[in-house]
Amino acid sequence: MKLNIAVLPGDGIGPEIVDQAQKVMNVVCAKFNHEVAYTNALVGAIAIDKTGDPYPEATHEICMQSDAVLFGAIGDPKFDNDPKAKVRPEQGLLRMRQKLGLYANLRPVTTFKSLAHKSPLKTELVDGADFMCIRELTGGIYFGRPQGRSEDGNTAYDSCVYTREEIERICRLAFEYAGKRRKKLTIVDKANVLATSRLWRETAQALEPEYTDIEVEYMFVDNAAMQLIQGPKRFDVMVTENMFGDILTDEASVITGSLGLLPSASIGVHTSVFEPIHGSYPQAAGKNIANPLATVLSAAMLFEYAFDLKEEGAAIREAVEKSIEAHIVTEDLAEGGKAYSTSEVGDWIVRYIQQK
Ligand code: IPM
Ligand code: MN
Q1: Is 152 marked active-site?
Q2: Active site residue 222
């Protein structure tokens, strides 16, 4: 197969971790006889510095013409302390999601047995936890209008907006997904307070008769935040709106022991994007110390979701698991043992796949 991949390394540790994922993709393609071609493009703070735009039209064109996008991270502290900054790197990511129509963000939370003790939760709570969080990605308070300030500058407002159509397409995807797993779907909302949440619940309820094999539960987001910590194993597929999903998946990521482990796939209308859920970790940029595994695992999702290449994805996942078991890990997972560099971890995974 021929794979045309757009590569958007972005800011901070983005370039280093994306390098590792590309090395791994190269060896997988060599092994399974695929041809892969990369086209690099600018996004985030680096795109602002070079073009004034965090998601330049040229980048969008490259994404549209590719089969899949491998994305690093964006964000730069020089923008964070300037609330008046006219343009922010994050706008690049949001605009990309919107323009590519990436309404579904799949964030699988899986635990590695050899890391269960790294979790802040008790091992018996974590061991075997395996669920999929599906986050709506192009609606809600992230994109709702009006948004802004009053003229005197003393009042600010955001709007949470959802249409029945937007809710239905993401809930359908979640029902279908649950059907392929353990057939349990948790719909997270705040229907006791928010009008948008009540429309979510009404829309999801109307779909239930079409999916009678799925066990559905509705859960308020505050309760869900608590249940994630109290018993993550109870979840199979969880679906929720944009902001709740953002918050709950950061929370869910620590269940596995490190934020540096969780990959994601954003899918929708146009080209799908694969990226780690963590940010640009600017303090570590250029130091070759960041954990590349979330990005490497995102590459595994890329093979599976963008090309339906299941064996290729599984080969990457296995290599990652073995690298953790062999303690070839970066400092966030080293626990006083030897900490390997970002590129050493990448090299080890490449060698493992080569020799397998
Ligand atoms: C994420 C990030 C983004 C989000 C930021 C960088 C805009 O936190 O992908 O989870 O909030 O969606
Ligand atoms: Mn986030």
Answers
A1: no
A2: yes
CB 74 within 8 A of CB 9: no
pLDDT profile of the chain (356 residues), mean per 10: 98 98 98 98 97 98 98 94 85 97 97 87 92 98 97 98 98 98 98 98 98 98 97 97 96 87 97 96 97 98 98 98 96 92 98 96
Q: Where are the alpha helices (DSSP H) in the chain?
A: 14-31, 45-51, 57-65, 77-80, 89-99, 123-126, 164-179, 195-207, 221-230, 242-255, 293-301, 307, 310-325, 331-334, 342-355
Q: What is the pTM of this model?
A: 0.96
Smallest CA-to-CA distance from 87 within 22, 128, 43, 130 is with 43
Give the C-alpha distances (Å, rounded to integers) separating 340 from 61, 122, 194: 37, 27, 47
CA–CA separation, 325 and 160 (whole Å):
44
Q: Which domain holds residue 313?
A: 1-101+269-356
Q: How far is the CA of 23 from the centre of ligand 2 (A)?
A: 26
Indicate if ligand 1 lies below 6 Å from the C-beta of 76: no
Give the model's pLDDT for residue 341.
98
Q: Please state the domain count of the chain.
A: 2
User: Which pLDDT belongs to residue 176?
Assistant: 98
Distance CA 83, CA 61 (A): 30
- 342-355 vs 14-31: helix axis angle to the nearest 10? 10
Residue 182 lies in a domain: yes
Distance CA 253, CA 284 (A): 19
Residue 210: DSSP 8-state: G
How many whole angstroms separate alpha carbon 127 and alpha carbon 123? 6
Q: Which of 11, 23, 103, 142 is catalytic?
A: 142
CATH of the domain at 209: 3.40.718.10
Length of the chain: 356
Is residue 224 one of the residues assigned to a domain? yes
